[in-house]
Fold these 2 entries.
Entry 1:
Amino acid sequence: MNDTICAISTAVGVGAISIVRVSGEDAISIVNKIFDRDLTKMDSHTINYGHIVDGNEIIDEVMVSIMKAPKTFTKEDIVEINCHGGISSTNKVLELLLTNGARLAEPGEFTKRAFLNGRINLVEAESVMDMIDAKTENARKLAMNGIEGKISNLIHEIVDKLYDINSNIEVNIDYPEYEDIEVMTESQIQEVSKFIDEKLKKLLIESENGKIIKEGINTLILGRPNVGKSSILNKLINEDKAIVTDIAGTTRDIVEGQIRVGGVLLNIIDTAGIRETEDVVEKIGVEKSLNLIKDANLIILVLNNNEPLTEEDKKLLEITKDKKRIIVVNKIDLETKLDTTGLDVVKVSATKDIDILKDKISDLYNLEELNNKELTYLSNSRQISLVKKAISINNHLMESFNSGIPIDILEIDIKEICETLNEIIGESYDDKLIDRLFANFCLGK
Ligand SMILES: Nc1nc2c(ncn2[C@@H]2O[C@H](COP(=O)(O)OP(=O)(O)OP(=O)(O)O)[C@@H](O)[C@H]2O)c(=O)[nH]1
Ligand SMILES: [Mg+2]
């Protein structure tokens, strides 16, 4: 497996420098073939000036970093060539590496090697990807906590406790006459099981917030034509992005914008006003709007203060009643003809100022608190589903314990919880899953 791989690690395009990374047993000897100084004589963890050459031709003036195994990202020899940024020079350097014995890395292969060589665990590897994807300060902090191993530490703590119990159970099986150990083991099981239940459930609840921090809140602005949806979008993002007119049916396709509220990204979608229509284009728009409801995290349902509630408004209130939503009553600068009795609403005028809507979103998600919190969340559905599985086996363990099942039988559940938790950090893994996971990384990482 350990052939030598290479890839361009910086974004492809024009920039001050580009980095071509090489990792593997032959990294130094391969680069040495195309460098005009003798790299084999250079110390580890040094950066060296020189030229990349192709025979007699000088290709680029570069700085070459040498990092010898094992203290490197992949735990293999790594050489990084800092060349002049630019598509042509960087590609030429890559091409020379390939013709001199390196293989083009697959996406995420450097990080995969870091994982397979035991430099980082799976949660840390996934956090590396999260760090690259992080669009907000909070998302960065979250990823950094993952890289630093906060979740892994919790998992190790739980697994250690479970191993302890299992070794006591083994003692009980081998030496049934030591009854005091059995009593001790029973109280240990109760205590650890409770600990697992509390910690993992907390992790799960907080992971919802983690998802918000990482991916943002997908927000859909919905309502009848002409109630002011596009005006609200424009005001929120502070830009005239969607066309606003007094003609009902102005917005036909979806219009998207992004803002940050309390450090969290809001992906906002303005939609075509919902109404029965014979216009073919508008009809498609209306269908699109309705389809978007199920994927939205938050619905902003807009009503018009200047008109009584219509059948269409009622229909929209009904369709969205189980979703997280904010009902906005717009156009409060005009005469009130809308009866909002029984509805929890935010009243605004999109032609003036709608900060109150931003405050409402912030309150709804507790964004203020989220910002000041210590973030130790699970970052993806793979991790979340394994934690759920561990919780459910733990429930089974508690039930079995309470119904007086002998402790040597409980050992089966305990072992299964350990295996499930170990899978999260990749202590046990399946090759196909690992391949799929790293394939989502970018090239050169
Ligand atoms: N007086 C007043 N007029 C508003 C307010 N908000 C929007 N309008 C006006 O209402 C009209 C419709 O606004 P839009 O934002 O285009 O409404 P929409 O809901 O996106 O409409 P469609 O795209 O047709 O579904 C425009 O003439 C806006 O200027 C408000 O708060 N007060
Ligand atoms: Mg519109």
Note: The domain at 127-212+380-426 is CATH 1.20.120.430 (Four Helix Bundle (Hemerythrin (Met), subunit A)).
Entry 2:
Amino acid sequence: MGLKELKIGNLTAKIPIVQGAMGIGVSLSGLAAAVADEGGIGTISGVQIGFREPDFATNTVEANLRAIGKEIKKARKKTKGIIAINLMAAMSNYDLYVKKAVEEKIDLVVSGAGLPLALPKLVEGTSTKIVPIVSSAKAAKIIIKSYLKKGRLPDAFIVEGPLAGGHLGFKMDELLEKKFMPLKDIVREVKKLTRDAEQKHSAKIPVIAAGGIRTAEDISELKCAGSDGFQIASMFVPTVECNAHENFKLAYINATEEDEIIIESPVGMPARAIKTDFLINSTLQGSAEVSGCYNCLSGCNPSKAPYCISAALINAVNGQDGIIFSGSKINSINKMSTVKEVIKSLIG
Ligand SMILES: Cc1cc2nc3c(=O)[nH]c(=O)nc-3n(C[C@H](O)[C@H](O)[C@H](O)COP(=O)(O)O)c2cc1C
């Protein structure tokens, strides 16, 4: 297919594959290091990363900060490749977590779920690259304008389309009625913007497409639309290296198209997930009382939330009933494999 390496500032990924972040705890150092070792970019999910620390329930912020340090160190021990961390702009204590990852000399901070306008200041004077996630050229334009006021540009953009997993930057009715712009068209629009900015400011802003990429043909199509890199998350779930419980991986392998659903997450955004008993019951039975709050995302109001999203995601990653986010075209993900095999199937 003639894919080029992916250059982000002074970092070069030999293959233009980025493993998308998967919270909570689905992509930790194990998966991220395995992808980085193959020459791609591995992403640690920083969302509630301290969930296995003994004081997580009582001392959540400290537990998360400690786990950020531990996971970055563990990834560095396992690989010399490129490691990113994903921290959602809507997370409470976002600034603290970004600063900790930067202190640990993370290569890239990737942020979506809101506009990560604070990033330039948070990485000032360091070599950490900043990569916002956008779902439209409109959002990319606002970010470019804001970053230029701070004397810089983003180091790359991830363009996440409507077929991605987890929280989505599209409206509920657009997703349900499938009335959305396809990823390749959003990539084209963002690429036009970045080309203009590159010319004006003698910079390079690679564009990485994400959401529903499953085959070499998908990659080829997005490459033609101008994409420099390709972010894949769901295909890395049923791999030996993925950090989730076997039951989580099996849910991916066994799911069919009918199991794919869009939910209204308690943080007020639509999200794509696999139908589980937990989701069926919470929709049918309405509000279950939220006992305890981790104060994870600023958009969530625990007194109105139908359930605690952190608890539901943690239960699932530990193999119990809960919320299992996934990208679209889930029926094409139907066997257990390794990171190497997934990458081979995508780029040969
Ligand atoms: C299980 C799961 C968890 C995810 N968690 C996050 C997250 O914490 N932060 C984020 O920015 N994106 C998250 N995503 C989105 C992915 O990083 C990625 O962009 C997207 O899923 C790519 O599409 P694909 O899964 O179809 O390959 C998640 C996706 C999945 C499947």
Note: Residues 20-23, 26, 45, 47, 86, 88, 112, 133, 160, 163-166, 210-213, 231-234, 325-327 surround flavin mononucleotide (CB under 6 Å).
